[in-house]
Design a protein that fits this description.
A hairpin with a 3-residue loop joins β1 (15-18) and β2 (22-25). Helix content is 38%, strand content 20%. The protein is of the alpha+beta class. It starts with 14 loop residues before the first strand and ends in a 6-residue tail after the last strand. The chain has helices at 32-40, 44-52, 54-65, 111-127, 141-149, 165-179, 184-193; strands at residues 15-18, 22-25, 70-76, 82-88, 98-102, 132-136, 153-158, 204-209. The protein contains seven helices and eight strands; from the N terminus they run ββαααβββαβαβααβ. The strands form two sheets. The chain has a five-stranded antiparallel beta sheet, with helices on both faces. It binds coenzyme A. Coenzyme A (COA) binds next to β5, α4, β6 and α5. Coenzyme A binds next to β5, α4, β6 and α5.
Length: 215
């Protein structure tokens, strides 16, 4: 993983992969606001700050276009329209973590799995076949369904930005009070992941893909 850098993955036309309906290509300057729209669904606060603050936005975009991460823009093959993006934020990590965000009106049409399969295949062709992980909010049922269908399996839980146990426990208490208990779906998920249900109020789920090439 040591020598991986983004430019290794794109051809001379800046394309990472093509599928029946999609082209996955290198991010270009004019994509920036659309990326923010795409992650603004799951992360509205961050999106608001990036829209307002040019310096923050420029820093974010430098990371997206940098060599240490692999971001690619997902476009409609026929029209070139921006649909969303796929990414590995830190290429040098042992186990690559895949992220995907589609604009809301392109969700639920099977475009996400088409993009993820193409992205993983393109990554494996260059970097060798290694397992991927995906971190998913316990409430994000759509994403869990998609990654499970692609062969990802429950692997564990992880923190998200904040690791301090006292803060995490305090947050769990607050959420427990708000919710008046732990929802049934979270209890089943917690059992599947082998963790205490309340942990799912403060952690994300980790799914892992066993390494094999997509068919
Ligand atoms: C998660 C995501 C990549 C899946 O891609 P997709 O093209 O929508 O995937 P699919 O069309 O195969 O749909 C997968 C499931 O999610 C559901 N789903 C998709 N978008 C949804 C939405 N906005 N609200 C509720 N459910 C949704 C679908 O109905 C489907 O469930 P079903 O099989 O019971 O019908 C895409 O929906 C997305 O970008 N969502 C917002 C951002 C996000 O959650 N990213 C992942 C963070 S880990």
């Amino acid at each position: 993983m040591q020598d991986l850098r983004a430019s290794l993955f794109f051809d001379a036309d800046g394309v990472l992969a093509r599928t029946e309906r999609l082209v996955l290509r290198r991010p270009i300057g004019e994509d920036v606001m659309k990326y923010i729209d795409a992650f603004g669904g799951p992360c509205p606060l961050l999106a608001r700050e990036y829209r307002r603050n040019e310096e923050l936005r420029a820093d974010y975009w430098k990371g997206v276009q940098g060599e240490d991460s692999l971001y690619c823009t997902i476009c409609a093959k026929e029209t070139g329209e921006f649909l969303g993006y796929c990414a590995i934020e830190r290429l040098k990590r042992q186990c690559p973590e895949i992220a995907i965000n589609l604009l809301e009106h392109f969700q639920s049409r099977g475009l996400g799995p088409e993009a993820v399969l193409a992205f993983m295949g393109a990554f494996w062709r260059v970097a060798g076949v290694t397992p991927f992980i995906a971190k998913i909010d316990p409430q994000n049922i759509g994403s869990q369904k998609m990654f499970r269908r692609l062969g990802f399996v429950p692997w564990g839980i992880d923190t998200h930005f904040i690791n301090d146990p006292a803060i995490l426990e305090g947050f769990e208490e607050e959420r427990l009070e708000e919710l008046g208990g732990i929802p049934e779906e979270l209890c089943s998920l917690a059992e599947e992941f082998g963790v205490e249900p309340r942990k799912l109020l403060s952690h994300v789920l980790v799914f892992r893909h066993p390494a094999h090439m997509p068919r």
